[in-house]
Specification:
The chain is built from 8 helices and 4 strands; from the N terminus they run ααααααββαββα. The protein has one domain (2-177). Strands 2-1-4-3 form a 4-stranded mixed beta sheet. The longest helix is centred in the last third of the chain and has 21 residues, at 120-140. By secondary structure, it is of the alpha+beta class. It is 50% helix and 9% strand.
Length: 181
């Protein structure tokens, strides 16, 4: 009974997700424009950060200029800002409206684990991506509608930085935020 209620109650949400998939598929037709718009959004979101100001990053710059000011590099390029972020100095790497939720930890395959900042805006994008994948999986396999779902995740709050910021796995944060229905 609960399964049927959940299925019918979720019709509106599934319709919204399908509309999101349709919009995404429309955007990827012109991938370059979509990527440029995404870069502008991220630059605008973090324009007030010390990292952006020190490197002269702005949403109005061309992609070529962005590449010149911030070439492909390794984690060491941002380590000082991440260390400041871990200490609670969010303006080091993030804009004022880009709230830090936690740090995800890399697996440490090339050395020690890296601290990956997870912000509210990143989490929205992350969840939207998983939702699009999920609705397409359910649409492609209708038998899934009658089955229970098992979700495996790890803790998002394994330990905290000196500033009290949770460190762990993003899957745990997403699970914590989900409705039980």
């Amino acid at each position: 009974m609960l399964r049927k209620l959940r299925y019918y109650g979720g019709c509106f949400i599934r319709r919204q997700m399908r509309q999101g998939v349709d919009a995404f598929l429309k955007d990827v037709v012109n991938c370059q424009a979509t990527q440029a718009a995404t870069l502008r959004r991220i630059l605008r979101l973090n324009a007030e950060s010390d990292f952006s100001r020190q490197r002269g990053l702005s949403e109005s710059m061309s992609i070529a200029e962005f590449r010149r000011r911030l070439p492909v590099s390794d984690f060491e390029t941002i380590r000082p800002e991440v260390e400041r972020l871990k200490a609670g100095d969010s303006i080091s790497l993030l804009g004022k409206s880009n709230s830090l939720l936690m740090f995800a930890l890399s697996s440490g395959t090339t050395g020690e684990s890296k601290y990956i900042p997870i912000t509210t805006e990143f989490l929205k994008d992350y969840r939207r991506g998983w939702s699009m994948w999920g609705i397409q999986a359910f649409d492609a396999h209708p038998v899934l509608h009658q089955l229970d779902i098992v979700q495996l995740s790890s803790d998002y709050d394994v330990f905290r930085t000196p500033a009290g910021i949770p460190c762990g796995n993003i899957s745990g944060l997403v699970t914590k935020m989900q409705s039980s229905l």
